[in-house]
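Protocol step 4 of 5: obtain the predicted structure for the target chain.
Materials: sequence only (see below). No template structures provided, no constraints applied. The aim of this step is simply to have a reference model before the mutagenesis design in step 5. Sequence pasted as it appears in the construct record:
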Amino acid sequence: MLKKILIVAALVGLWLASSYVLFLPEFFRIHDYVHGARIGEMAQALTDGQFPVRWSSNFGYGYGMPLFEFYAPLPYYLGAVLFIFGFELLLVLKLLFAIVTAGTVIGSYLLGKELFGRAGGLITATLITLAPYRAVNLYVRGALSEAWGMMALPWILLGLILVIKGKRGGSLLLTLSLVVMMLSHNLTTLLFIPLNIVFALGFSAVLVLSHNLPRSEKIKQWLKTNLKIGGAYLLATGLSAFYLFPAYGEKDFTQINTIVGGYFDYTLHFLYMRQFVTPGWSYGGSNWGPDDGISFFLGFGQLLGLVLLVIVLGKWVQRVWLQRLSLTRTPHFSLLLLLGLVVLLAAVSIGMSVGRSQPLWDMVPFLAFVQFPWRWLSPAVVFLSLAVAMATKFLRSTSQRILMAVVIFGVTGLGNTYMFQPEGFLDTAESLYYVDPYRIQTHMSGVLQDYIPVQMSPEIKLNPQGQPRVITNLGVDEYEVLVNRSQEKLLLTKFSQPTTMELAIADFPGWYAELDGQPLNHTQNAVGAIQLQIPSGEHRVGIVFGSTPLRAASDTVSAVSLIVLLFLFIKPRLLSHD
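Step 4 output (structure tokens):
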């Protein structure tokens, strides 16, 4: 009982060490300070009845853009729901930061504990939770979505391990944690899935080889396990299809290609090996060369852990050699293979972040969308932490394992905690974090332009001329707005002659117009917004943001996948209680 209490206290300590600034009344500036506006736009869309949410009506200088079709939406769904239920915006932001750290602490501990016991679990949780790269994401860059994506990684590995070991709940955990990653950060998904597949194939092979079975049975068991893992991947992809498929299939309708050039060219952001071992902390940005304005230091506890891993492993090899034992005949051989797999994946992740990997980046075009090679540090941190925690399994006594866990916990806490704080606090947080439509249109829109429809002209910055409007070219006495939701407008027009009506809505696939209940073709005006030809007299004009064939198919796949999920995992549990 005492051990459990101490473990819980240590995990709470990790959460507090990386979240204590959230308890202060002030809030802070981060590089990506658009979170408040995103939450406001998501909340407005949900309140309007838009689901799944794709269109933001105020970004794009008031003409709107399909923000949540391309920007991973999960954290903002949660934030919007909290905001709708009355939580203040700054409190919602703090909760999203606090939740992602709590999820990281718990998932990392459970992963390490499943593999290496309590001491290994505490080491894994310590090294992942207090990794400097997490501090960069949370308190420097403010990369909330990437932090949520990184949070999912230990849970995904835990689900994989439970499936491979044949334990109950593994497939459900794997499926749901994959969904969290896919809907939280698509770039983390892009980087981690290949590594995760290699881990699954390798770990399942190591486990099968340790069983005393005929070769044919081992192969059969290995195939069966990986088919089950593949099923979880397939189901998770189906559940996330409403976001994943349109995000990929319709990206060319936006100005997203602007994020792969200029400052965002990946060739400018490769790291140097010395940056991983150079202490220091700052709040600037990523630049060409080794003198970045932000730190990519692995961490004091992390480096100490790697040194201890080498020492422990060296002493174990020495014991094996003195006993004249073959490595393949030692009880730790399977563990040694697993360590090799984890170290390999960590090395690949780190290798992909340094300049020597550029030929690979040049050969794989879609890697350009990653923008910053140092994003590979997310999986690198996880696999390095597992490698260090694995050292506890090569120690001979429980007291040695506890001592190693305590030392790493203490050094990491003392050495890394100071990084988990912002550069400073804002006197008026509302200057950056707000949901006001007018301010989003006129100020925040210039910060987030990646998903503006491709045909929109730079001149949209001049419209809709300083106030939220539906019509840009007519006087208010010529029409009446009956419905004004983010995804639909209904107007009553009263023109004395046929009129070209220009709407303050960026044209994008999915917008459909009606005149008195009948389909009405629309065109684009000079800046790329929707315009309609309206006859004289009194008419009802509707404009609705609906589906495209790809979106409709994707939504259907997600709905069917949800039914499959309920049938596979929920129904059997209900029946077991009858």
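Step 4 remarks: The first helix runs from residue 2 to 17. The chain has two domains: 2-424, 476-546.
Proceed to step 5.
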